[in-house]
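Data card: per-record layout.
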Amino acid sequence: MNGARLVLTAAVVAAFVAAPATVSADTQLPFNDPNVSGQIGFCDKANHPITSGNVGDVPFVWKAVSSVAAPKAYVSKEGKATLYAYSPIKNVSPGQWSPYQLTSSAYYSNPEHPMVQATFADSPLEYHTTGFPPTLDGLVQIRMLFSAPNRVPLTSPYPAAVVKVSGDQWTLVSGDRTPDCGAGKSVSVATVRMPNQQPTAPPTWAANSPAKATPTPVPGSTPAASGQATANSAATSTDEAVAGSNSSAAPSEGDSTDSAAGEIGSSAPRESGGGVSPMLAVLLVALGIVVAGVVGILVGRRSKPEAGQK
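The structure for this 310-residue chain is written out next.
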């Protein structure tokens, strides 16, 4: 009897000790999503796993890898996967959270580990957090959703990851920290359809833009001169960006303003140059009229006596 009690006690203790090792990381989150099936891991352009980044990086991540196979109904040569971001809301069903599409859809070669390949034309995480601020502990859920020809896009279940946003940084708090980034290949639909129109680097405003890297000082130049050159370059880039934005956003307003300025410039008197002053011209005209009147009077007086003599 005592032996049975000892065995039972040992089993209970072992169960409590072993329990934390089998608990999913998602149970530690302040929300529960029963639709999650599998995890997502992130990779950089060199195929190395990453667990953090800047919300302003473009794209959000270079590649996302699922730890589980794609649903069988969506496994085909035309099967695709897409990344979406969601900001969890307390006491609201995960199915009612607002989605934000982070990437274009992407084909994947290995259905056992479907992937999403991003491009430099995709969105930074900052776009989502600006429109849908992460109010629940700064958490953002990333889902991988599947689609295929002649199939309704699958909205659940889905592999997922959760990142925590703090300031301009994000950190993986739930997901696959060691994904097999080389388990297959993936290509964005945008790259397939418009191969010659894809940017080859992040935009200049992105946090990971090469343009934002500190330039190496030119040998022989002073730090002040180097700094001034950098400032001038930044100002030029900013001016060009603003000019481009303004011209695309309101071309009619800019054109009308330029046209009006041209018309005013053509009719207004110039303050410099060799032209005659308007006031002087008026005085000369008036003087001419007076002189002509005086001459007319004199001529009339001279002609009257001559008429009498006849």
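Known properties of this structure: Residues 3-27, 221-276, 305-310 have pLDDT under 50 and may be disordered. The first helix runs from residue 2 to 22.

See the next section for split statistics.
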